[in-house]
Amino acid sequence: MQPVRSPRRGGSSIGTPHCNTVAASTLHAAAVFCVKSACSTDTLTLRLSLNPNRRQTIMPRTSATPAPATLTQASARRIWLRAQRLDTPEPFGADASATVAAIEHLGYVQIDTINVIERCHHHILWNRIPAYRREHLYQAQSVDKTVFEYWTHALSYVPTRDLKYYLADMKLHQTTPKTWFNSVTPADLRKVIARIRKNGALSIRDIDDDIPVEKDHPWASRKPSKRALQLAFFIGKLTVSERSGMLKTYELIERHFDWERPPKRATEKETTDYLLARALRSQGVVSLDSVCHLNAKRKPLVRAAIDMRVKKGLLVPVTIEGAGKIEHWATPQTLDEMPEQVEGVHILSPFDPLIIQRKRLNLLFGYEHRFEAYVPKEKRLYGYFALPVLVDGEIVAALDLKADRERRTLQIQQWSWIGTRKRQPLKAAIENGLHGFEQFQFAS
Which of 101, 162, 231, 301 is in Cβ range 3.0-4.6 Å of 272 for a Cys bridge? Predict the structure, then answer.
């Protein structure tokens, strides 16, 4: 079934940030989008089984090779929410150090330009740090230098402690640069790097002698210097030393981090181990696709690392009910520490790590998110920039919101219900969550 759009669209406001309740007339519900869980129990069971699809030598059962486990979707969902730190109110604390702790735990926080509401990197952090302040991220990037920007599956904030795992990609881009930058000449590249080396960090606004050129792809800049700055960033010559909104200031990477010598590049094995450890930490139960999201070339190495850990008893094969032939794995500790019922309301960014892997989201939550910013208006189901709403561990609604910055209110463009739970108690909980989200939007 497909969700039915709300008959009432556009212009609904949830009020000012100082209100404690939301007027009932400002909220509306779409028809129910029925999602039924494939499992009827909420327990973890262990079974001895052999998966015929596993391409490996079957090892004799020993104390070091734990029995495969079977999880219900509800159990796997709770494990994922715990791993994402969406199961407790302040998992990382409330001060500036919480921002770094959150990024280090998640492994990355995505950056995106869409600003119909607060940009996604701040939104993702706020969902895990209720006392989050934007200056905390500035401090981490530009003062303490404990996070930096680079490309994961998309442009993201990444822990500086993990920088060595990205040096190989930087080196690769020097020899095979992204096709986005085919028009950048060696002279353009040398020019911007020399300018920064001589005059210090700069943004594109500091360069006023560019002669605009035609775009060679839809997202290209017409300024040759901006393209050169972006290429120098990808090949690791420059880093983003400061960000104001989407305006980036670039600096020589070695000068920004005050390196006497650059860190040693991680080996292929070290990088593979890092990606697997990051996924296990932030996802709880992993599949090959979830570890290698948009990085298919890494799959053979990751699979070999998983198989070795299974043989050593460090990972347990997991069957998730309803997952068919998709293989999953978890650590024994993860399976031993089954989370309790998750409580609370989270209005999530479509770029949140919980949402960004759509197939995994659909498997564990029974919810197929649609990112429709580039879909014609008449073909949208949830709206331009719909935000999934998590209530007590289930996705129960999708809200298309827009920030009215002049009036300092959030406008509800469309409200779509997901699932079959009773709406009235959910509506009250979501309204309360919306006020907190609104206050965050317009906090100075």
Answer: 301
Where helices occur in 84-185 by DSSP H, the ranges are 97-106, 120-128, 134-138, 167-175
- In terms of pLDDT, which residue wins out, 443 or 252? 252
How far is residue 69 CA from its own chain's centroid? Answer: 28
Ramachandran area for residue 45 (φ above 0: left; ψ -120 to 50: alpha; else beta): beta
Interior/surface letters 260-296, b for 16+ CB within 10 angstroms, e for the rest: eeeeebbeeeebbbbbbebbbbbbbbbbbbbbbbeee
Parallel, antiparallel, or unpaired for β 155-159 and 328-330? unpaired
**This prediction's pTM:** 0.84
C-alpha to C-alpha distance for 263 and 319, rounded to whole angstroms? 40
Residues 183, 348: Cα–Cα separation, whole Å: 38
Instruction: Taking the CA atoms of 99, 101, 105 and 107 in sequence, report the sign of the dihedral they define.
Output: positive
Instruction: Take residue 174 and report the two structure tokens written for it.
Output: 């020097």
pLDDT tens readout for residues 24-77: 333 333 333 333 333 333 333 333 333 333 333 334 444 556 678 999 999 999
What pLDDT is recorded for position 52?
37
Give the pLDDT of residue 67: 78
CA–CA dist 114, 124 (Å, integer): 14
pLDDT above 90: percentage of residues in the chain = 74
Residue 128 has a CB neighbour count (10 Å cut-off) of 25
402 DSSP β-pair partners:
411
CA distances from 251 to 112, 142, 158, 233, 248 (A): 21, 11, 17, 9, 10
* φ, ψ for residue 17, nearest 5 deg: -65, -15
Decide if 193 contacts 199 (C-beta within 8 A).
no
Decide: residue 148, CB within 10 A, 0-12 exposed, 13-18 middle, 19+ buried. buried
What is the distance between the alpha carbons of residues 358 and 339, in angstroms, rounded to a whole number?
23
- For residue 110, report the phi and psi dihedrals to the nearest 5 degrees: -70, 145
Classify strands 316-320 and 69-71 as parallel, antiparallel or unpaired. parallel
Starting at the edge strand found earlier in the chain, the sheet holding 316-320 runs: 44-46, 69-71, 316-320, 328-330
Q: How many residues does the chain have?
A: 444
Looking at residue 224, its pLDDT comes to 80
- Stretch among 25-34, 65-74, 150-159, 197-206 having the lowest mean pLDDT: 25-34
What is the structure's pLDDT at 132? 98
Assess contact for 43 and 374: CB atoms under 8 A.
no
pLDDT-based confidence at 440, cuts 50/70/90? very high
